[in-house]
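[stage:ingest] chain + small molecule (S-adenosyl-L-homocysteine)
[stage:ingest] validated
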Amino acid sequence: MFFYPPPLIKYELNTMLKIREGELVHLIDRKGKRYQIVLKAGSSFSFTRGTVSHDDIIGLEEGSMIRSSLGEKLLVVRPTLAEFISKMRKGSQIIYPKDIAAILMLADIFPGAKVLEAGTGSGALTMGLLRAVGMAGEVVSYERREEFLEIARKNIETFFDKVESGDREGSGKLVLKEKDIYEGIEEKELDRIILDLSEPWRVLKHVEESLRNGGILLCYNPTVLQIYKLSRRLELKYERSFRVMGIYEVGLREWEIKGRSMRPELRMIAHTGFIFVARKCSACEQENKLLTQINAD
Ligand code: SAH
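[stage:predict] done
[stage:export] tokens:
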């Protein structure tokens, strides 16, 4: 079938549209300092280098430059997800964007996937997952602390309502649950399970029941002792249900380019966490037959 004009999804449409009232934007000065504002007609934003009226920003194209009352030039953009995450309110520790990027690829999060994650924390990973599963996908997220769940809910709503597509079209369905995942998983036939909590081995029994065969379990932990305990438990108790695919660590080093100085930044985020990936498998058919035979004999 041929469509003309080609159908546009809401997100594409939004990124082409002019900046509207109610949107959250970043103003970036010439030194790279960012100011985050939510646009409201009639309001103004003041900083050390002057004032900018929101009305002057509303209606501009993304990527425009504006001048403050004291002549400072500011770039107007919608923040990227990584930029939004670095500025948003945090209750818990978060997964950094460099690790979220790797997690989405290593867990092979695809459009239409049904993904379960725990804990929700501040919602940083949740937002990455929601984007990656797309409109046909679903993310279920467990968090046992009510106050964190509220912070995450606000962050997610702000990002999808004020930065992304206005009405969350383009991202997946989200179910937030105040629940302790050590006590069990209600969902079945999940494509992916992502665990960012301190004792992932306590969830293996539930993962075994809820992850479909061929599904991926990804655990994110800061210390190698946790990874060691997890892999030992898999090896000793769940050897027939899981195959370890790999253990990874991501280092991202930023560079500075200032005139003739071109070198790595002096400071970097060094260690954050290890990424552990395993794949769910069914028991071997031949072995099953053999066992049934032995039992019958
Ligand atoms: N991935 C999150 C950060 C998670 S921090 C982000 O990117 O923002 C770890 C979270 O796991 C904490 O909020 C903690 O309350 C939660 N948690 C720990 N054990 C849990 C359990 N058994 N069930 C549900 N949530 C749990």
